[in-house]
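tl;dr need the bound structure. longer version: we got a ligand (cytidine-5'-monophosphate) that a collaborator sent over and nobodys looked at where it sits. i said id run it. heres the input, straight from their email, havent touched it
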Amino acid sequence: MKRRKDLITVAIDSPAAAGAGTQAKLISKHYNLFYLDTGKIYRYIGYLKLNNKNKISYNLIKKKVKSLKISYLQDKNLLSDEVAVSASVIARDKKIRNIVHKFQQKCAYSPPKKYNGSVLDGRDIITVQVRDAMFKFFITADIKIRAKRRFNEYRDLKKKITYREVLKTLRIRDKSDKERKHGPLKKTKDSILINTTKLSKKACFKKIKAIMDKKLNN
Ligand code: C5P
């Protein structure tokens, strides 16, 4: 695969609902970068699994990922808690992580020409997918705040789920994502920690923008 050399690459890792997606979108818009929410690919596979009575071959997953279009990832069905849990289960599988790897590499290093680069967010972006990223951010927040934010999103989507249930599945996913063998979530020494517990979206982006501008304008 050809790599564009002039790229601005931004890699973000974070636990669920810490605000990484919101910041990635703001970064993508401000710097004209191609955005990939990598969690959506795992959700897409998790959703396939749920809808095929859990019987789905690696070959079929491979085919589906090969013909995957970014627009498929905008499907509202991918936003449920059930799909999130299914995603975190299939995400433990090394074979599935390998299938998804190529798609992410293309988005990170060969985004459409109209973009100045790429921004990817997920769990293993800094540690595995874009290890040489120009900017590395580890975004986190207190779990109760994350649960509250996710609960509000579900409420806006009219999903029937309680705050307690959201908190419980976030705890389960955090544990699974951090303790799994392949591509676990962890902060690298060279990534910048951003804690959004007490930060508004705007204040958080201001912080990120200051860091990025300093390097880009040098
Ligand atoms: O980010 P989101 O909550 O949509 O991700 C759903 C699940 O997909 C996560 O809980 C995680 O298990 C998995 N995932 C992953 N690696 C990524 C992105 C997401 O394993 N890069």
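gonna send this back to them w/ a short note. Strands lie at 8-13, 33-37, 117-122, 135-140, 192-195.
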